[in-house]
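OP here, attaching both records as promised.
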Amino acid sequence: MTYNTLLSTILDSFPRVKNNLTISEKKALLRLVFKKIAIKEGVIIEVDLYEPFKSIIPEAEIECLKKQVKPKIRQRNLVCTYERSDAK
């Protein structure tokens, strides 16, 4: 299933299922929006979105949203990066 097809399928059914999503379904939904998220010492340092979200949400708004996320952990020299792999 292509990215656009999967995204379209989820967005079409989203209004009726949004309150009943499991944790794994929420993660799958976020994987459709975020191409890459890098976290250092519990703070989001880099975010890369897929289109059309990248065009819809201004960079300044993303920076503002990043600052609103409160760190849950504080560990020194810890870097965690989520990035989708093309490997199957």
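Record two, same layout:
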Amino acid sequence: MNRLPIKTDLGVCTLLWEGDRVAGFRLPDGREPRVSDEHSAEPANAPEWVLALARRVQAHMAGDLQDFAEVPFDWERVGEFQRDVYRVALGVKAGVTWSYGQVASALGLPPGGARSVGTALGQNPWPLLVPCHRFIGADGKMTGFSAPGGIKTKLKLLALEGAQLFAE
């Protein structure tokens, strides 16, 4: 697997790819990546589509919001239910939040399906690109976020995107 560290306004993200598909994405964890890793790519060695995606990630993190719905994800890395959840998530645009229950309803799941949706979003191998940070509890509360930084990172991403976090 190839990896490209991406310096952003929020820290260093990492884009992982194999062939012509995005295999994973990592949000900043506060540590600089080991660029000497044998699978790390210098920008000069990465394919143009990877570099273009890296520039879009940088733009998004700087406030020039991007839609990543057309990214060539390696969907084979996740199960069918996860794919369904992530495709719904890709339709939720920057600045908008949905409850886990709304996703469950969009998928035609029975009552209680929100928990399965939350589990799938918590296993998202492409946070930010597949915007799992845009999903909240039915009562508007921020719930778990499995990416580095947890709910603090989720709040930063939502604030960056202009989401209204607190209703009057």
